[in-house]
């Protein structure tokens, strides 16, 4: 037990001596150390703020790109629908013209047959 007490006492004396030497040899005073810590924390805060702003800008750019792509896709769909409508109108007009021609032809044939009778 005596040996253990001597070891513990030696450890405590060594720790106290180390702490005292560390304080005596520290290159900065307490106020300078506090200023350095404050500067470091402010730098970290500024970096975090800049990173957050960069992230916000990236999100804005990404959302703008998504909106542009959606607008282009919608415009393409509207263009395709307009083309299909035009084709349907042209086909319907062609059918109407064919029907008119058929009616005129039949009417002319009847007229000719009536006049010949």
From TrEMBL:
Residues 95-117 are annotated as: Disordered. It comes from the Bacteria. Residues 105-117 have a biased composition (Polar residues). InterPro entries: Desiccation-related_membrane, YtxH. PANTHER family: GENERAL STRESS PROTEIN. This is YtxH domain-containing protein.
